[in-house]
Amino acid sequence: MNQQFAVIGNPIEQSRSPELHQTFAQKTGIHLNYVKRLAAPDAFKTSVEAFFAQGGRGMNVTVPFKEEAFALCDVLTERAKIAKAVNTLWRENDQLYGDNTDGQGLVAAMTALGWPLKNSQILIIGAGGATRGVIYPLAQAGARKIVIANRTLSRAEQLVQDLQQAVPQTTLQAMALNELSGNFDLVINATSASLTGEALVLPESLSFHYAYEMAYGKASSFLDQAKARGVKYADGYGMLVGQAIESFSIWHGVKPELQDFLD
Prior knowledge:
Elements: E1 3-9, H1 17-28, E2 32-38, H2 44-53, E3 58-61, H3 66-72, E4 75-76, H4 78-83, E5 88-92, E6 95-99, H5 102-113, E7 121-125, H6 129-140, E8 145-150, H7 153-163, E9 171-176, E10 182-189, H8 193-196, E11 206-213, H9 221-229, E12 232-234, H10 237-252
Parallel strand pairs: 1-2, 1-3, 4-6, 7-8, 7-10, 8-9, 10-11, 11-12
Antiparallel strand pairs: 3-5, 5-6
Helix pairs in contact: 1-10, 5-6, 5-10
């Protein structure tokens, strides 16, 4: 019988995880069954427990359950502890393990694009869970300085305070969104602006060489501005594939090549 895997969220129809994991399985000769599971807002815990009780091997977690998954785990990886969110679950020795592969997915995507992260100066716009999840992997990849810009400055300052100790080799700094300026190697949009249709205005006083939009498959004023400036840019599809590859590797011990899925 095929090994059972699933992605859980609400909503869940939009998830591309099943097609990605089926493709990885075909490329690596692994037999699996991977499905989407819709959970009611108050039924996440029971749905996860039922899945593993029925012999499920591994589960991906998407919005809005990543923080709840974090709280449910018996054992957490270092990057999950720092992110305070979990997107990858599995059971071992009667314990529920959790990891967060989002940040590593982002780093893998940028590395596949040939973008330099070592000694880089990075600006991340937004101070929510998506930003928290990528700081540690970016620091591990060699980022020298990461500035977090947010509409509410206190949220960015809180994030810096929470994470600075975890990344002593990287300088973290907070900035108010309306005071955006400076020279950066890379700017990452971690806000939901492209999903909500909000305009994100990048001032002329801000200069950068690379632009990454975490969302994918949507019109993005952030990427439009990057194109207009003639800098290199990419949307979040590579990050999506990268985090899926990392999850697949945890479960199966085999890592498909990200480059195969970006061409």
